[in-house]
Amino acid sequence: MEQRIDRIKKQLQSQSYKLTPQREATVRVLLEHEDDHLSAEDVYMLVKEKYPEIGLATVYRTLELLTELKVVDKINFGDGVSRYDLRQEGAAHFHHHLVCLECGAVDEIQEDLLGDVEDEVEKRWNFQIKDHRLTFHGICHRCHSEDPSS
Ligand SMILES: [Zn+2]
Ligand SMILES: [Zn+2]
Ligand SMILES: [Zn+2]
C-alpha cells in the first residue's frame, strides 16, 4: 500500500501536483476498496470517517484529477452513477467488468483478452485504439449455482 501511494505521489509530482493529506486520504480509500466500484459520494463518506472536515467538492476534485492522470478510471454501469476504479499499474487498457443482472455484483477481468479484436479494428477501420470499456451483462457464478433449474 505504501509503495503504491509513493508511486501515485510521484505520478502527481511529475505533473506538478502535490499529494496533499486530503488527496492522500482519498487515494487510501480507493486502495482499501480496490475491488469495489465506489461513487464520489461513497468515497466522500469513507474519507470523512478519517477527515471529518473534508468537503464533497474537495473529494470530487481529487477524483477528477486522479482520472485526468489515469490513476483511476471513471465508469458508469448504466445506473447514471459515475464510479471510480483504480487502474492496474502498468495496464495499457482498462479492465473488463461482469455485471450480474440478478444480484448486481460487479466482477473484474484483469486480462485484456482483446488483442485479436484490437488488431482487427485497427486494420479494418484504420483506427488507433487507446482504450476501451467492456461490460458484460449476465448471470454470475454465485447466482447460477443457487438456481437449480439452470
Ligand atoms: Zn473495475
Ligand atoms: Zn485492450
Ligand atoms: Zn449474481
What do these coordinates show?
The chain is of the alpha+beta class and 150 residues long. The protein folds into two domains: 1-90, Arc Repressor Mutant, subunit A; 91-150, Ferric-uptake regulator, C-terminal dimerisarion domain (Dna Ligase, domain 1), CATH 3.30.1490.190. The protein has helices at 2-14, 21-32, 40-50, 56-68, 115-124, 141-146; strands at 38-39, 72-76, 82-86, 96-100, 106-109, 135-138. Strands 1-3-2 form a three-stranded antiparallel sheet.
Q: Layout of helices and strands, plus pairs?
A:
Elements: H1 2-14, H2 21-32, E1 38-39, H3 40-50, H4 56-68, E2 72-76, E3 82-86, E4 96-100, E5 106-109, H5 115-124, E6 135-138, H6 141-146
Parallel strand pairs: 4-6
Antiparallel strand pairs: 1-3, 2-3, 4-5
The structure holds zinc ion (3 copies).
